Structures are given as structure tokens and as C-alpha cells.
Amino acid sequence: MTYARRTHLTGPSRERRARTLEPVQQIADAPLAPLTTFRLGGPATRLVTATTDDEVIAAVREADAGGTPLLIIGGGSNLVIGDKGFDGTALRIATTGFVLDGTRLELAAGEVWTDAVARTVEAGLAGIECLAGIPGSAGATPIQNVGAYGQDVSATVTEVVAYDRRADETVTLTGAECAFSYRHSLFKDQPDRYVVLRVRFELEDADGMSAPVNYPETGRALGVEVGDRVPLAHARETVLRLRAGKGMVLDPEDHDTWSAGSFFTNPILTAGEYETFLTRVAERLGADVAPPAFPTGTDGQVKTSAAWLIDKAGFTKGYGSGPARISTKHTLALTNRGEATTEDLLALAREVVAGVRDAFGITLVNEPVTVGVSL
Q: Which H helix or E strand runs over 108?
């Protein structure tokens, strides 16, 4: 399969090419809460649903030509939208496309991620099986460099096809050009420039076996050592079970899953910051307490656990008495118990951030994207 590196769009100016989207589904004063896993947020001035790449590009061009604020929505699993909503056009990407050519996989941005993972496992291909159960769309995975249980999409993404709003053209970026790092990428660094259209992966045919297990918790659950392989289906089912036990698999009947999954990223500390952190831990919890520590391999930096910090700062599972609370299954998940507002959620998040900072001198950073609000 041959991929074009860059496609230049030629023709009239952006203003002349921006077309009226009459065939595309449009709703005025549209509720956005149902499009998010938090079930929170006010309405958008207009909601456009695009089912093809051309419709996506046309909607973006139309908004840009008119100077209209634009909010891109995929699976809505990483969004915190303010109670006042969004004064502009919300574009829901609902494109479909799953193409498997040998070990090469191409997904349309609107494909449901967890379904795509299941299909690759059924096809006997390894590389993303431990990312099973993660809510959201395929197009969001390179933006956040989605990862879990020892796998990150950056390890398998080869190319991302995106619409470059600044250049007004469709571009194909290599994995290296995506500038992946921990829960970060070029797309997250320049959120108003690129709109992901398609994502391409190189997977592995390991005769029905998984990629080498790369996470201790996964290994323990599978009963194997780090570096071992297991049958693909067994790896996927085990990860789904682990995620469900933490409320990280969507269930409309379970309020512990009305969340964005992990609300905070795991802090990465310099060597000096880590030594200061150890001193704070000893003062608060005792000299014999060792916090989780994972060397990153970069200039002595160490990654520690946000979940551990939250718990040891006094915010245990189920913390809270209002409509927004910490999950009863996992301290990293902040949840809507059914009647919460976005402001309820943010108040809880701010309380947790302040408490962890006071206890350990570390400021947690939110993982979901905030729209019209901030911590």
C-alpha cells in the first residue's frame, strides 16, 4: 500500500470554497452533554455532524472563513465543557472506515476505538490489545498519545492524515513528525491547527500472541512475567476486566463510569523535584514509605503515580458528598453521580489539586481538555 506524503488542495480562496452544509446534519442550540462521557456541559450555538472527510473539511473551512469558534468532538471521552456551553460551531466527527492490509491498519477518525481494538485482536494482530476498553474515537488517540497497561499508540502509529487549518491543505504526518511524548503530541501542542482525519498503524503478526507484556499489573493479572507474550484474546479480556474493576469501562447504568477516565496525568519529576518529594513523603507518611517511582530514561526524571498522591493526600475512593465525587473504584476518576454540573466537577478537581499540592508539593495537571472553563 502506498501513501501520499502531502496532498495540496488547489482552487478558489477559502472564502469561496466554504460551502453551505445543507446535506449535513445540523442542530441549533444543541445540547453537548449527551456527547460526552461526563454527561456535562451546556449547549453549542450550532452542532454539525460530519460523516465523511470532505464534510469535516468543509465544516472546518466554513467556520474558519466566518471567524466562528470551532469545537471538534469525537467520542467525547476527554472533554470538560462549561455549563454555559460553547458559543460557536461544534463539529462532531462521525466518519467511518476500518481498512486492514496485512499488518497495516487505517482507521477513520470517527471509528469507535474500543471496537477497532477488538477487530484487530480478532484478526490476530498485536500492538494495541492492551488499549481495549478505552472510550472515545480513533482520531483522538494520536492527539493524547493514548496509552494504558504498558502500551501507547505512539509505538504503532505510522502516519496521521489531518487537515491543516493554517495551510488549508490535507497533510500526512509520520509518527516521528507527530512529536509524541507522554500523553502529548504535536496535535495537542497546536490544538487549533490540525483536525485528524485518519490514523495509520503498523501492527504485528505474532501468530495470535500479544505484544510483550510491558506493565507489572498486567503481568500479575495474566500470571506471567514482564516481557512474556500471551494469547491476544486473553490479553484483551484481562485488560477489560482490570479496567472494569476501576470503573474505566463505560456503563450507562454505573455512575462510576460517568467520567473521563483518568482525570489527572502522572507527574514527571526532575531528579531534584523527586528528592524534595521524597522528603515530603517521609515527613507526612514516615521514612519507611516508598512512593511509586518509574524512571523515564530522560535526564534522571522520575514518573510517580497521581492515583497514589490523591489517595495519600486524603482523597480516598468515593470521596465527596455532592453530585460530583471521586469514583468508588479508582481515585484517578472524578465522576458525575447523575445530577452534577461542570462547576461541581471543577470544584472537586480544584480541591484535589490543592490538597495534593499542600501534602506533597506537586501540582496535578488535568488530562481532559477543558472548554470555556479551567482549573
A: strand 104-108
